[in-house]
Structures are given as structure tokens and as C-alpha cells.
Amino acid sequence: MHPVTRADFDQYMVPNYAPAQWLPVRGQGSRLWDQHGRDYLDLAAGIAVTSLGHCHPAMVKALTEQAQQLWHVSNTLTNEPALRLARKLVDATFAERVFFCNSGAEANEAAFKLARKVASDRDPARDEIIAASNSFHGRTLFTVSVGGQPKYSEGFGPRPQAISHVPYNDIAALRAAVSARTCAIVVEPVQGEGGVLPASREYLQAARELADAHGALLIFDEVQTGVGRTGALYAYQQYGVTPDILTSAKGLGGGFPIGAMLTTSEIAQHFSVGTHGTTYGGNPLACAVAEAVIDTVNTAEVQANVTARAAQLRAGLEALNAELGLFAEVRGMGLLLGAVLNDHYAGRAGEVVAKAAEAGVIVLQAGPNVVRFAPSLVIGEGEVSEALGRLGSALQAFAG
């Protein structure tokens, strides 16, 4: 049999990614091993996805048991895992109705379509979606157009219209933009790809008030912040601001593809039979795994660990910075943190990611200036300490 190597990517795959030169072959908890047996401490979690680490026993059990029962039935039938998961999400949030899909982009696509459908049913002249500059909402043509990063939407022909962008955390700009034409305001409680930048409480409160005053819907994209990552099941609960529609994915499946759109019964009724769908959405395998994730994450024990490990990681980064002077600030919420490179090192976050991998620790970037950390929610104190040690070596090598 032909041995698999990184060179196979360059030979067989569409070149829209530039993956690292090493191949992971096994994972356990917050550790990965490559083809040569070298271990890496994972502070990236597959971009905030493997919320319980790699091969968590509760997830393995749920998937294995469901795999021997029922894999797929399509949306012409429903199934027990999907209904159990929907009930648990409703019980744990503001939502009364749930739509399942396969990714964050699909969850946002559904949310944006639903907002437009509600507007169309109520007032066809109301079609504008207002989003934030530097936001990220997915890679479909609609979601990438709502996202406030033109580099991702240019080069694909005409884009969906009636989409406006205003600066993030700028209440005055948002107030000036919202009008009788606005059907939805879309916000990430923490901008992930845009630099791990948390919203202020006042900004989200203003978005809620403006949506109410103008008859628009408020959509929170919690694809990256949701399912325990910020220290609550969903970040909106920490802000005390409730959206009309919330999207979830990434950590929801702990590594198994699933997305969800949560909303109220009144809004959900506008998606009547046949208006929207997905072949795999609500897949029994995905929902069984996500149910195990929710059961594990939505506990005082795991949320306490998120708070404690976030404080440990932030303190460790601050200590390294006191020694090396690389970062202008460390920001974020819970176990979604961003270390912002100072002006002297601006634009070099990718180099830090590469140096970290050489030292055996996996981190991310969020734009050219921010090193992003999004480890497992159940990572241990010792693993964080070990990872900080390796990261310190990497940062020293980077600083030269």
C-alpha cells in the first residue's frame, strides 16, 4: 500500500489550504501525535472545535453506540438523537425551536435566510442585513458577503445585495446605519477570525435596543464562542443580552460535523414546510455525539475548569510577555484568547504559529497580528503548564 505523506496533499488536493508539513495520526485529550511519534500539545482544538479534546470517552461511547443503531434517515423522517439534542438546547437557552445542519456556515446561511424570510412575510421593503467590519460568518457566497472581510468575498462574481458593514463595538456607527429597511443585525459576541475581540456589554445592549426600535431581528453568531468556550454555555448568557436567532457549530459536535440555528417559535414559523432544508442536517450520528458534548460541557465542573484554565493561560502569556515584550495585549473571553503582537512584530503571527509547532505546541492566528488560543475545555492544569513551557521556547526563538 502506498504510504501517505504530506506530499500527497500537493499532488491530489485542491490548493485552497496550506497545511503544516507534519501529519497528525492520533489524538488523546489535548495531545496529538504525528507520523513519526512526536507529540504536540494542542491549544487550537481544531479551531475551537474539539471542545472535549481528542477521543473523549463520552463522545466515543455515544458515537459507537449510535453507529450500531442508525446512521441516516434524511429529513423525510426525524430521529431520537436529534429530538433529544433539540430538547436539551431549548431547555438550556432562550430558544424554543432548533434547526440542525452540518456546519457554522450552514447555520448562518439558515439564520440569514430566515431573517430575510421573516422580513419578506412582514414587510418586503425590509431586506438589509447589517454586520460588523472584520466579522466572519462562513464561506458560502451569502455568509462570506455578510462577513466583513472583503478578501474572502472578492473574485467570485456578483455578491448578494442589501448587506452593510459598520465598525465593531461602535454604537454610534450602528445607530446611524439601522433604519426602517434593516431586517437583521448580525454580531459575533467575540470576533474570532477578526482578532479575538470581545464586544462590550453596551454595544450588544445597543444592538438589542436598536433591533427592537426598528423592528429588526438580532442574530448572534456563536459558532466559535458557543458551547462553553467563554465560560457559559453561550456567551450571550454572560452579557445578559438575548438574540432572536443564535447560531452554533464548531464545539457543538466536539469534532463531528454539526451546526444548529436556535430561535423562537414565532420566528421559526416563517420557515414553513419546504422553505429550507439539508440532506444531512439532524444526522443521528452527529446528534448523538453533540448530545454527549452538551451533557458534559453544560456542567459546573467543566465551566469551572474553563474559568481556571483561562486564568492560568492568560497569566502565563502575560508572564512570557513581561520577559520578552512581544504583545500589546492579551484579550478574549474564557478559553478563546488572543495575544496581539505589538508594532515591532506586527504582521508576523504566522511565524509564531510555525515556531510554536516546531516546539511541539499547536496555536492559531486570527489575522496577521493576533496569536489565537482555543484549547479543549477540559484541558488540565499540567497540560497548560507544559504547553506554556514549550510556547516560551518558541517565543524566545521567534524574538531571536
Automatic annotation (TrEMBL):
It is an enzyme of class 2 (transferase). It comes from the Bacteria. Pathway: Amino-acid biosynthesis; L-arginine biosynthesis; N(2)-acetyl-L-ornithine from L-glutamate: step 4/4; Amine and polyamine biosynthesis; ectoine biosynthesis; L-ectoine from L-aspartate 4-semialdehyde: step 1/3. It is found in: Cytoplasm. GO terms for biological process: L-arginine biosynthetic process. One of its GO terms (molecular function) is N2-acetyl-L-ornithine:2-oxoglutarate 5-aminotransferase activity. Gene3D superfamilies: Aspartate Aminotransferase, domain 1 (3.90.1150.10), Type I PLP-dependent aspartate aminotransferase-like (Major domain) (3.40.640.10). Keywords: Amino-acid biosynthesis, Aminotransferase, Arginine biosynthesis, Cytoplasm, Pyridoxal phosphate, Transferase. GO terms for cellular component: cytoplasm. Its cofactor is pyridoxal 5'-phosphate. CDD domains: OAT_like. Belongs to the class-III pyridoxal-phosphate-dependent aminotransferase family. ArgD subfamily. PANTHER family: AMINOTRANSFERASE CLASS III, SUCCINYLORNITHINE TRANSAMINASE. HAMAP family: ArgD_aminotrans_3. This is Acetylornithine aminotransferase. It comes from Rivihabitans pingtungensis. The lineage of its organism: Bacteria, Pseudomonadati, Pseudomonadota, Betaproteobacteria, Neisseriales.
